[in-house]
Amino acid sequence: MKNSIAAVTGGFGLVGSQIVEELVCAGWQVKILSRIKRVSSSQNVTVIQSDLNDPVGLKILLEGVDAIFHCAAELIDEKKMYLTNVKGTRTLLDATAQTRASFFCLISSAGVISSSVDNLITEETDCNPKNTYEKTKYKSELLVKNANLNMSVCILRPTNVVSSLRPGVLMLPILNGWKEKLKVKIKGQELAHIVYAKDVARVAMFCLNKKIIGVNVFFISIDDDKNNNILDIYKEYIGLLNKKNRINRTLPVFIPFILRKLFRRGDLHGKVAFSNKKLKKFGFEFKYSVQDILREIHKKRGG
Prior knowledge:
With 303 residues, the chain is of the alpha/beta class. It has a domain at 5-163 and 195-222 and 273-286: Rossmann fold (3-Layer(aba) Sandwich). It is 39% helix and 16% strand. The chain has 11 helices and 11 strands. A 7-stranded parallel sheet has the order 3-2-1-4-5-7-10, sandwiched between helices. A two-stranded parallel sheet has the order 6-11. Helix 1 packs across helix 7 (197-210), helix 2 (55-62) packs across helix 3 and helix 8 (230-240) packs across helix 11 (290-300).
């Protein structure tokens, strides 16, 4: 996209960095908002050191942009979650309304569902956020939905995003200590809900190029892959590491569910899946299966 400019908040994060890479490969000029001083190695990327709640920094970030990707979020410090995830989103939306941009993308989380009696979670399933992160991410979704932006808007809800730097559940076979083996024995039958960071970025680019009218919410999930469960992922990755698998039996899936109910006051059953039918109906095709993800991460980690 010659002469097109995109703004990315959280552009050095797990998903944001992949979106930046996709944009640059597609010929976009990219401006990244970063709270700390960073330097980009690409001549097509400009880093703007500022905070989401700084109107001056946002004005510089959004000047002349055609598309905006909001990936910044606070995942760890609960005291900062409202400031970043809610107030920061509101400030960004206020500034966005004054731009010429024709596309806005919010990276949310499948976690906004939190708990449900449905066996298959779709975009029509009610959200019941429980913890601070889930609540603030859901509030950010509502802000985007109600902003009445005169542009194509997508809200993306990826499941458990993994990469070589953040392998998530793959740490079970990577570490493979007694604690990890115990977790596999207890939770092995549960769905792992992994999805590759590169595919999440591909969905964001797909929505950008598709120019879907109005505000659309999409789950990004490959739960329909039969290998997307903890035991199969463990066994497959152990094989890639040339280690011997010694776990063949796991507890019934209802046991870890009951344990979570006792300690967390509600959670999804381990066999509940997130649907990708809406996304596929619009024409998106996932590039990475569970096995592809494992092989790619193993290779990138020096396997």
